[in-house]
Each structure stands twice: as structure tokens, then as C-alpha cells.
Amino acid sequence: MVTINRIVVFYFSGTGNAKRIAHWIHDASLKAGIECHLQDIAKYAPSEFPSSDSEGTLFYLISPIHGFNYPKITLDFIRHFPKGNNRIVLMNTRAGMKMGNWITPGLTGIAFLISSFWLRRKGYKVMGQIPYDMPSNWISLHPSLNDPTIKFIHKTIYSRVNRHFNSIVAGQKVFLSHRDIIQDILISPVALLYFFIGRFIIAKTFYASPACDDCGICIKQCPVTAIKHIDNRPFWTVHCESCMKCMNICPQKAIETSHGLLVYTGILYAVIIGLIYNLIPLLSDHSFMRFVLGNFVFFILLILLYKTQHLFLKNKYMAKIIVFTSLTSYKFWGRYKSIPDKGWKSDLEG
Q1: CB 55 within 8 A of CB 33
Q2: How confident is the model at residue 55 (pLDDT cuts 50, 70, 90)?
Q3: Range 196-329: architecture per CATH
Q4: Domain 6-187 of CATH type 3.40.50.360
């Protein structure tokens, strides 16, 4: 067995779940007397890639799951990863919730399947595929989790991370993903639809309410530089990864999800697509044409309505209506706020 004398952890993180696990691995490495380096994928430059000529170097790669796949920034990083023969462990963070003393599992989808295929072709030895169900930060879909829930999930996953780390350092393979292989394969069509269509739609649901003081924090800290400053306010482009970082770090809690915009787009889409099928009945007889045309029409409508909404936000009365139709604007919805390790590690030590 080759002794591990160095670990390099590559991570992409929006609200901090993947980054937190990267730091837990870093701490476990230091305790084991192993040199460890952390590399934020969003700040990655090819010239900074650490030397991989030593067999004793173990790579970790961890990223959240977006739409049952790694986000594009992570996939691009893996695709451009240089060739090598080192061992590598793939991890992801999924949307975890708490039911009693049980953390509900998320779905990895095609993330491990695609990344393992690419890395093995480059010569790497995949030693593990491990999903971690960290606190769900997807507040566009559900209210934020409360502190006791976040604390419980952190404590549970922290113990798992350390247990898996010890197994891997001991030379064992850890493929927890095999337990979910059937549902991951079944969900693969949805993952592909999200990657080619869905992520662009979700990217156009974020906006800054009148509470925005134009501080620019969301623009400066966007890990994929997807937020622009247009008409004196933030504007989300289709390059957005929907990592939720901007929404959860905004000091004014001014960034909202425009649920109303999606509803209006859906209504207008139904009217327009119905007119098209009435004018050209032949289109409705071909499922593939319906699929392509339907997605094209919906996306174009969403782009146009999003730009219109951006202009309407300048008017205080229209802005109030837009905010009213956004679930995230209500106080009970909240924002995702991670709890520092010191807030729960003492319980484990005790």
C-alpha cells in the first residue's frame, strides 16, 4: 500500500457546505500528520495546479449537487484536469433535511458517473464516491432550516467525514454512492434536462428588491461572476450557477426569488404555445418538435419578462407587486445561515 504523505482538496462552494467539509478533511489530515492543501475551484488557475508526480499525493474533489449533477464550473474543472495516475476521492454535498433523528438523503444523479469516467480516462484511480447530505440551502424552494436542524446535521456529517477519512487513509475504498446507483440512473434524464435547460431558467429567477442599497457584495462575491451591474442594480445572467451564495450573504436580505415571474411566464407560455399549435397543427403531432419548441418559447419569454421586471423594479409601486409575489420576501421564509463549528463541536468533545 502506498503511504499518503500529501492531500490536496479541490472544492466549489456557494453557501459554504462543501467548503466546510473541505476544512474538516484539512483538519483530519493535520491530526494524522499529513500535509494538506485547500484549493477553491472558483479561484483555480492551471499554473497553480499542484504537482501530482508523487504517488503519495491523494486528491479530494468536493462540490454541491445542482439539478442531480455537478454544476458546470465543477464539470469544467474536471474536464480540464491534467492527466495523472494519483488516487482521487469524489464527494458531493446534497440537500439534507431532518426528520426525527434521521437526515433525509438527496440524489447525486449523474455527477459521479460523468466525473469518474473522465478522471479514469485521464489515468486517475478513483478511491471513493461519497455523498454528504448537508443542510439544504435551496431557499427558493423551501423556508430556511432552523438552527437546531443545522446543528444536528453538521454534527452527524462531521462524524461521517472523519470516519470515511480514516478508512481512505488506511487504503480502503469507500463507494457509498453504489447504494443509490439505481435511482441515480433513473433520475439521469432530469439531470440532463437541468444542465441543458433548467439551470438557465432558474438563473433568471433572482432579483434585488428595493431593499437593495447597491453595496455590490453579491456582484463581487459571485463565484462565477454571473451578476452584472445594469441600470444601477444587480442583474443575473444565464451564467448563474444558482449556488444561493448571493441570496444568503446579502446584508439587506434584498435578493429574492421571483416566483411570480415564473407563474406569469407559465401563463403567457400556455397562451402562446396554444396559438402556435392552432396555427400549425402539424407541430402538435411530433413530440420532439413539441419539446424543442416548448422549451425555446418558454425560455425566450422568461428572458423578455425578466428584463421587463428589471425595468419595473425602478417603479416603487410595481416593485411592491413583484416583491409581494416572491415567497422569499416573507419573514418566516428566512435565509440559510450556517453555524460555526465551535457552536456544536463542544457537544462532541463533551
Answers
A1: no
A2: confident
A3: 2-Layer Sandwich (3.30)
A4: yes
